[in-house]
Amino acid sequence: MKLMNSEVKEERTSNKKRIDLFLVPIVLIAAFLNLFKIWTDEYANAYYTAAVKSMLQSFHNFFYASFDPGGYVTIDKPPVVFWIQTISAKIFGFHGWSVILPQALAGIGSVLLLYVLVKRTFGVWAGRFAALAMALTPIVPAVSRTNNIDSMLVFTLLVATWMLFRAVRTAKFGWVLAAFAMIGVAFNMKMLQAYMVLPAFYVFYVVATKITWKKKIAFLTTATALMLAVSVSWAVVVDSTSADKRPYMGSSQTNSVLELAFGYNGINRLTGNTSVTGSSHKQPAQTEQQTASSETKQNSNSSADSSQSSNQRKSSSSQKMQAPGGGNQNGMFNTGNPGPFRLFQKGLSDQISWLLPFVIFSIVGLFAGVKFKGSYTTKQRESLFWLAWLLPVAVFFSIAGFFHQYYLIMLAPPMAAFAGAGAVALWSMYKQHNDWKSWLLPGGILTTAALQVYIMSPYVSSIGVAPIAGVGALGVILALVLAIRKQRKNSLTNYLGAAAMVVLLAMPAYWAMTPIIYGGNSMLPSAGPDSSSGMGGPPSTATNSKQSGFNGMQPPGSSSGNSSSNNQMQPPSGSSNGGQMPGGSSNNSQMPNSFSSKSSSSKRKSGGMNAEVNQKLLNYLTKNNTGEKYLFATTDSTSAAPYIIKTGKPVMAMGGFSGSDPILTVSKLKAMIKKGEVKYFYLSGMGKGGQSDVITWIKENSKEIPSSKWQSTSSSAQQGPSGNGTLYEITLK
């Protein structure tokens, strides 16, 4: 107890010291990577941006996180992050950058928190290096520059970690409750993903606290109960509310938050089966998406020549990228094939794994000599915490059937912590020992440089041979020289060690800048020379990677002049929302791709959806609205989002995000039409899973509006994901 009190006094004393001047440039680097040019992203992730637009209009929409101003359907995630985004938009005005700002600040905050967490136990240089590694982990700024949830989620979990560490130092149960309650808050950001850190929290508290087992069990049970209560608080309120008094819970099949949490946003992520319950055509998401993934690697300018575009897609989808040990590495959304080497595969390794070998060597060094029976040092206990965070999350991403590259940000804190703590520990072992532990530093440098060469090799056409050869040569030379000069205590050896760290961070730093250099994708953020495609991985046949969004996809009602079926992505008959991308597109909707904004504006409309509005269609719908609640109805959120953002008026996404939610029936639609709530329907052939009867009824009982009245250019109405659909009008007496 005296030791704990002395630690608290030491902490208070250290807090009064002046700012660490070495931390200032690290924070500035993080601020640049997270904030620079976010003001050029006009729509951000249009699916979520539309929700913020709707949430600004009423408390009802705000509380339920309604996708549309009419309160028809919610987005596919809990509301906490979007509450924060809405508050930001209320303060700064509704802009793309104002909904991105909270995530960008959270990314910077995570760097600072990691510095604080690591510094206190492992030393100031460990904290500095950990903070720098966190800032330069490519997927961290790539996600933080968007209005996706994960950056805020990681920040919240690091706040919970700080609370837990403080609970152990001060021996105050209140901090334990606060830490687990914060995980409950994180659950209301991205549901079960927040629980991935629980093994670390339980293991650390059990090992680090000097209390009886009876108290440990009682305290953890109470804290867990509080966490669960906070976690389900919003869900219980929503699910207890009558369905006719709230929006439909988007992306669920039973209109339930809890079903969404433990199904679509839970177990289905592990199994990869995101088919609609009861569908007659269930397929694993990966099977449905393998062709679709190759679609995302095409540039929108190629739409001028549909036959060439089709050939390029066929070529791209047939490429077989080999992972260590062989095997097709395409996977769903370029996340590779499940297996023990998945984090070393293309598409994932360049997002998170640049320092992974060094981290592994650091873990070996930090746990060298640990006895499983007996007391642990503070360093060993906290190393165990970061290991218990790292391993379960790494295992999940190694075997999971359905996730996106940007989810890998969950691995960034423990990897950065081990990089910082390990750098200091391995350096100390290198200088003080002459046994096997002294070889860990040069070994870690050599293997990390080798992996980085492997990561960069598919990008030789984009970045050239020089950086690849440079990292490889310098890594080998520095590792060999350090091995030769073991135990020589002079300034040259110190400079060599510092130079090695610079070499290992050089290319991650460049990769972290690629969303700024090449443009980012707000729906499926990733880092790399093809970051604008939002799918990561090696460059494809795209001719210009500095675009973002979709492959030649036009806003509803516009005509591309190209109706080739090869340029369309039709879902399998009867398919559901298989492979649905949260906050993005699905196989039933449009896949993200390089979207060439036809606007002369410098702002980037990278909403990852049809983030443009056909003004002629909008004018027609506005002029002919006779008091209907909804401007028009469409199959899914892809077509609806830009019009909600532009006008702030209700647009009905009949089948929710991907068009597969069983929200609407023919009888419900008839009642809405008779009540004068909607009369115009835009159908593009997408999103039929789960609502085919409704669409069939619309076509059989409607009047088709001539395309000349609403299409941006004269063209026959076409079906397909390019946006060339048909506008219908229905009036019932």
List the helices and strands and how they pair.
Blueprint: H1 2-15, H2 23-35, H3 46-55, H4 59-64, H5 80-92, H6 96-122, H7 124-136, H8 139-144, H9 150-170, H10 173-190, H11 198-208, H12 213-240, H13 257-271, H14 285-295, H15 306-318, H16 349-352, H17 356-366, H18 378-399, H19 412-432, H20 440-456, H21 460-463, H22 466-484, H23 491-517, H24 615-623, E1 633-634, H25 637-647, E2 652-653, H26 666-674, E3 680-683, H27 692-700, E4 703-704, E5 726-729
Parallel strand pairs: 1-2, 1-3
Antiparallel strand pairs: 3-5, 4-5
Helix pairs in contact: 2-6, 2-7, 3-5, 3-25, 5-6, 6-7, 6-9, 6-19, 7-19, 9-10, 10-12, 11-18, 14-15, 17-19, 17-20, 18-19, 20-22, 20-23, 22-23
Describe this structure in words.
This protein starts with a helix and ends with a strand. The protein is built from 27 helices and 5 strands. With 733 residues, it is mainly alpha-helical. Strand 1 (633-634), helix 25 (637-647) and strand 2 (652-653) form a beta-alpha-beta unit. It has a 5-stranded mixed β-sheet, with helices on both faces. Helix 3 (46-55) crosses helix 5 (80-92), helix 3 packs across helix 25 (637-647) and helix 14 (285-295) crosses helix 15. The protein has helices spanning 2-15, 23-35, 46-55, 59-64, 80-92, 96-122, 124-136, 139-144, 150-170, 173-190, 198-208, 213-240, 257-271, 285-295, 306-318, 349-352, 356-366, 378-399, 412-432, 440-456, 460-463, 466-484, 491-517, 615-623, 637-647, 666-674, 692-700, and strands at 633-634, 652-653, 680-683, 703-704, 726-729.
